[in-house]
Amino acid sequence: MFFSSLLSTSPLTFLQILILCIAGVHFVNTTPAKIGQGYKLISIEKTPDGGLIGHLQVKEENNIYGPDIPHLQLYVKHETDERLRIHITDAEEQRWEVPYNLLPRETPPSLKQTIGRSRKNLLPLATSDYSGNELIFSYTNDPFSFSVKRKSNGQNLFNSSSDDSDPYSNLVFKDQYLEVSTKLPKNASLYGLGESTQPHGIRLYPNDPYTLYTTDVSALNLNIDLYGSHPMYMDLRNVNGKASAHAVLLLNSNGMDVFYRGDSLTYKVIGGVFDFYFFAGPTPLAVVDQYTSFIGRPAPMPYWSFGFHQCRWGYHNLSVVEDVVENYQKAKIPLDVIWNDDDHMDGKKDFTLNPVNYPRPKLLSFLDKIHARGMKYIVIVDPGIGVNSSYGVYQRGIANDVFIKYEGKPYLAQVWPGAVNFPDFLNPKTVEWWGDEIRRFHELVPVDGLWIDMNEVSNFCSGLCTIPENRICPNGTGPGWICCLDCKNITNTKWDDPPYKINASGIQAPIGYKTIATSAVHYNGVREYDAHSIYGFSQSIATHKALQGLQGKRPFILSRSTFVGSGHYAAHWTGDNKATWDDLRYSISTMLNFGLFGVPMVGSDICGFYPAPTEELCNRWIEVGAFYPFSRDHANYYSPRQELYQWESVAESARNALGMRYKLLPYFYTLNYEAHTTGAPIARPLFFSFPNLPQLYDVSTQFLIGSSVMVSPVLDEGKTEVKALFPPGTWYNIFDMTQAIVTTEPHYVKLDAPLNVVNVHLYQNAIVPMQRGGMISKEARMTPFTLIVTFPSGTKDLQAKGNLFLDDDELPEMKSGNGHSTYIDFYATASNGTVKLWSEVQEGKFALDEGWFIEKVMVLGTNGIDGAFEINVDGQPLKGTSRVQFITAEHKYIDNSDDGGDKRKSMMMDIHGLELPLGKNFVMSWKM
């Protein structure tokens, strides 16, 4: 949706800055370098669950940012072999934490009422180690500091001590200001700490600002806290060519600044507790596995969601939407899902239909038509519920007391319908009411998913507002995002004006600016101050529960605001981007970041949200966007139309790139299964597959899909070639498998890239399942399969492997062994003059019932065939192999480098005319 703050439309002007200054915005952070003397550990003991519990006492009180909390409770536990938790809170009073019912986890011991009393289990206070299988926790008692080390190599992963020369304090713990730091080696590469648009690429850049606080500021703004809060980072270190990765999560939903200086990192948090989780890795994939095992595995996505999606804010009536669908068909561009922004609504109110522009009988007829094809329909839902006495959704909300309060009354804000109240998703009654409203709407319009937007939460006004008595608000003229309520600032509470100003919106804006006043109250007295950044997360959970309860189908939810664990319920798009070449480039880094955050179903608005893209930019954007996990074209109300068929050149690029995506749908869907079971990102940085190569650590202009498909797009205007970095090994052009690149070292290659061409390469040692493709995933899914086997060129004993997961994608669960799925491992070897390819099938009945079979095998990197071709299926020789045909072509090596890559003669072999049932084990072999 469009921007709801001054910050969103463009970089700040002098006038805007002046206005914000008058409103009390601070631009200079005057934090003292050192605050206090830290804490002293006064006792520590073992707990019955195998952890440690200690008590800390402040050494010297001061009033910088408020008084110190005098006594703290320290709790440390190795929760698994790879995960260590360090929890520090007030020893005497309960403090806000991310709710345990939203993000399930172990509960720390209850607070001790007596500090430092005599106990039998007390441990000595001298420096001591508490060792687990992979990680070691060490502490120093005065001043208290802690460190976390890797057991295998002794690396210090986190060290909170502050020396005299350090520009940061020892531990600081006040009601509204918490500070802790860690030393870092200068050669560490850090990733994460989102959501923000990072102009320097995926690797964190020293002295860039990293503020975490969910905000409706458009993604075109750089280094600013955006829609999500993910206070985790992955640290990748390389010692003598050997890499090891770990991750650190600070599970805290309060606003925070994180200062990364290259050799240190400091957290400055305005509330809550320190609840650190350390994930040992040691590979990037292992880190994400361990992280998502804790925060929740990524949600399984339905098969159709990996098709192409088309959306626009400004499809004024149903006939426009119908035309869009038909024009995609005419242009022969694949399309699975058509979306509506708020155009379908009556007065922009949730769960309604505009009776004139989207009359229900005609809409239902349209949905019957596209559903029969296999297409899907998704609409937007914003959290703001219009204040309107004749609006049933609002009436039922008031009756059920579901809204966030201010001084006992529903807090009043303004979004698209005008005056709104915001549902409180921390309230169980709200979750029930929300589910009922979704059920009612689904009976009105059988949508196939929901798009929850503006849930940071966005408010066009600031402060405490009332509905004006003497004018209509909004009046229907001018931009809808201009506040028209009567509002006054609220700055007389510590919640609305905390002593430490985080760098909100990049300018230290008040934390209640263009959102809910932070002194507003949720269920059970929870302050918006604490719960602000989990609003979208809590809405995702409620929406997921509602959709799953409708028909028992697998939900699809797209959420703009995210938090730790959101990927367990929803997909994400990167918000309001700009139609510029820079934004195209930034989209790759943001996508890769969300893979780290456990939200693998992610993509950006293809061609840019606003303003009008150039034809060339849209060509290049669909060539990248066709390989986003979530692939959607979306544009702004005020922009010209930019559907992919609007330019013939873009249509050609779309047919080319999306055509390949639709052939790769079984590969994407198998990665969806891998993400759901292990957390592995669908789109990955190159270093995920090659962690020992430092040259890849900041590559942000190429990416991998899974471990085997590399996309190297053109990201610059006027370019018809691309300089791509190839890690060691053999890479085959997926569009022309006779072309190969072989290198023994990371090596840049100039690739031809005319306007309608995107360079995508398959890596060696892989077996990639593909199908024929099609105009819609439902049809493409039922076409015969091809297996692409990629052997490395120039070696003797060749191996390759791959896998394939197939299931009934409507089922809420995505797993093997339920009678509605088939999982297959593929293996291939080439040695002693013989090539062998075979499958190992689990639960083959589902694939057999669907009639899936393999019609072709493409083998790359061998010496062709010299006879003795055999196929066995379930142990029996296959008859009728006379129909099988062979075509061979010699590989062309397109790189002229002299880096030593072995470019000996090898062949591409096309074996077709097969009819191998996917659901049965087969063995295929032949002589080279």
Q: What attributes does this structure have?
A:
single chain; 928 residues; alpha+beta; Immunoglobulin-like; TIM Barrel; 3 domains; 9-stranded parallel sheet; 8-stranded antiparallel sheet; 15 helices; 53 strands; 30% strand; disordered N terminus
Radius of gyration: 28 Å
CATH architecture type of the largest domain: Alpha-Beta Barrel
Strand ordering within the main sheet: 31-30-29-26-20-19-18-33-32
- Briefly note the structural class of the backbone: alpha+beta
Q: Please count the beta strands (DSSP E, at least 2 residues each).
A: 53
Count of helix runs: 15
User: Quick one: CATH class of the largest domain?
Assistant: Alpha Beta
Distance between the termini: 58 Å
Number of domain modules:
3
Within the CATH hierarchy, at the fold level, what is the topology of the largest domain? TIM Barrel
Main pleated sheet: 9 strands, parallel
Percent of residues in helical segments? 10-25%
**Oligomer description:** single chain
Mean pLDDT level:
93
Basic shape? globular
Specify the CATH homologous superfamily of the largest domain: Glycosidases
Query: Which segments are poorly predicted (pLDDT under 50) over 5 or more consecutive residues?
Result: 2-28
Beta percentage is 25-35%
